[in-house]
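Progress note, sequence design subtask.
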């Protein structure tokens, strides 16, 4: 089978502590054994890709005989080769999301993982239904992380998104940017705000072309139009709760050098907007890398 078609599984912490090198043997966890051997019905000699969740992968082969009726039987897998630089794109994309009501954020986490996001930062904003500083509990965060891992494996991504503990919108907005990080905030009803796709495409023009566009009033960009290149950069994009951001929140973001962008003329729900934004970013980056 082609390597691109092989099933992925994410190694747990105990396995990552082992020597992950060619010819080394990994003991599969009961959950991994059940999934590979009983759900997928792989047998001895079948290959799969083991991931560390941080962009590295290993071509691995089921090594021992499988005894389906023996739940105590240990199944081992042998590492055949390392897959270097196992990454979808060079750009780290992170999502900051004002938490929607109920458990609907779980669907956003699942789809964001499928779209290759590296980190998800839940937020309390002025319009979140969940009140600020409400303790969510470790079990909910663990469930979110498990959803992200399962979606990563099923969609054959290389990175498992890390789910951060919820924080206040104002704290995230005011936090200093990482090196060369582009910070975007999705807004509605603001005149002159560029569409997200337009903004991403313009970042690949040279500065003379970009300044010509700016001088012709085609778009209105913040921070004196100093747009960073995306090579080796990261993108952090924020989406609001139902009802969007307040005027004060948008003003605070712009004052802290966040670039406002639009997702179009339609009003999108709090669980649709982040998926649309991530899909646009991924499509733009993949199209650029293949052009």
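Output:
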């Amino acid at each position: 089978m082609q390597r691109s078609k092989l099933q992925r599984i994410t190694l747990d912490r105990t396995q990552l502590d082992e020597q992950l090198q060619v010819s080394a043997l990994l003991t599969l966890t009961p959950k991994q054994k059940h999934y590979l051997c009983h759900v997928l019905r792989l047998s001895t000699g079948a290959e799969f890709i083991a991931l560390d969740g941080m962009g590295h992968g290993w071509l691995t082969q089921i090594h021992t005989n499988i005894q389906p009726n023996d739940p105590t039987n240990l199944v081992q897998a042998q590492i055949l080769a390392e897959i270097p630089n196992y990454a979808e794109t060079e750009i780290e994309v992170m999502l900051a999301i004002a938490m929607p009501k109920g458990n609907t954020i779980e669907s956003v986490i699942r789809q964001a993982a499928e779209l290759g996001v590296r980190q998800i930062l839940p937020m309390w904003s002025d319009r979140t239904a969940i009140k600020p500083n409400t303790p969510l509990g470790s079990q909910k965060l663990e469930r979110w992380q498990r959803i992200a891992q399962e979606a990563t494996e099923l969609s054959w991504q290389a990175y498992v998104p890390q789910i951060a503990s919820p924080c206040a919108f104002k704290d995230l907005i005011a936090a200093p940017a990482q090196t060369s990080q582009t910070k975007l905030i999705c807004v509605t009803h603001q005149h002159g705000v560029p569409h997200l796709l337009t903004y991403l495409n313009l970042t690949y023009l040279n500065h003379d072309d970009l300044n010509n566009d700016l001088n012709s009033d085609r778009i209105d960009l913040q921070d004196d139009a100093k747009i960073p290149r995306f090579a080796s950069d990261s993108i952090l994009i924020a989406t609001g709760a139902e009802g969007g951001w307040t005027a004060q929140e948008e003003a605070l973001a712009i004052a802290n050098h966040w670039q406002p962008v639009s997702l179009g003329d339609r009003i999108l729900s709090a669980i649709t907007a982040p998926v649309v934004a991530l899909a646009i970013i991924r499509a733009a980056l993949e199209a650029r890398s293949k052009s």
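Residues 205-211, 213-219, 223-229 have pLDDT under 50 and may be disordered. Work on this subtask will continue into the next period as scheduled.
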